[in-house]
Amino acid sequence: MRISAIQLKSSKSVEDNVERALRLIEKSNSDLIVLPELFDTGYYPENYELGDISPIINFSRDCDAVIVAGSVEGEYNTAFVIHRGEVIGRHRKTKLFPLTHEKDVFKPGSELKAIDTPLCRIGVLICYELRFPEIAKELVRQGAEILTVLAVFPEERIEHWKILLRARAIENQVYVVGANCVGEFCGGNSMIVDPMGKVLAEAGREECVITAEVDLDYLREVRRKFPFR
């Protein structure tokens, strides 16, 4: 299975963000594609009412990829799981970041649910939720074999991001795909990590696509060989 994380430069132009995201999705040519948190609006409250996932839905009609993309859904910060022109699952962010004004804008989601896709069952986390090991553990308990993490993770704490992605992979013996933004304050370093914590692909600080081949049989072999969960 070929999976990609889209590391997108976050700008204040929703139209520009969507256009660049679609271009990078097409370039990735992957089975599973993960975009950052609020990929279209950026972390700009004045844009939130403009959040619209329909361009990604329309694009997906003509490709067989599963696309995970973050946007605004009414009063929620939501990650949408999209395939062949349909939203086949969604995750509403349950942990709102306390150091910004998220709680003034969004309501917290109330459900953690692994999502069935044509590829496998996946779990979705949004940014700050990466800091809570119990969230990843619950999604894996429900059968997730790949965890996708959509983020607007800041430069000043980017080492936390890198360590936490690998920790969630190791402690749960899953693949982890972290898609972060770059730009005004975001730190990039999107990563794809295997169930043993090996970094299969890592971005720097530029807008780009990172891609890796993953093998779910290898994941199951790791779990058989190291029954640490």
Keywords:
single chain; about 230 residues; alpha/beta; Nitrilase/N-carbamoyl-D-aminoacid amidohydrolase; seven-stranded mixed beta sheet; six-stranded mixed beta sheet; 6 helices; 13 strands; about 25% helix; globular
Structural overview:
- The chain is an alpha/beta fold.
- It has a single domain, classed as Carbon-nitrogen hydrolase (Nitrilase/N-carbamoyl-D-aminoacid amidohydrolase).
- 26% of the residues lie in helices and 30% in strands.
- The chain is built from six helices and 13 strands.
- The protein is globular and about 50 Å long.
Q: What number is the mean pLDDT?
A: 97
State Rg.
16 Å
Task: Give the fraction of residues assigned to helices.
Answer: 25-40%
Structural class: alpha/beta
Biggest sheet architecture: 7 strands, mixed
Number of helices: 6
The name of the CATH superfamily reads: Carbon-nitrogen hydrolase
Number of E strands: 13
Write the layout of secondary structure elements.
Blueprint: E1 2-10, H1 14-28, E2 32-34, H2 54-60, E3 66-73, E4 76-83, E5 86-92, H3 102-105, E6 115-116, E7 121-126, H4 133-141, E8 146-150, H5 158-172, E9 175-179, E10 181-183, E11 191-193, E12 199-202, E13 208-213, H6 216-225
Parallel strand pairs: 1-2, 1-10, 2-3, 7-8, 8-9
Antiparallel strand pairs: 1-13, 3-4, 4-5, 6-7, 9-11, 11-12
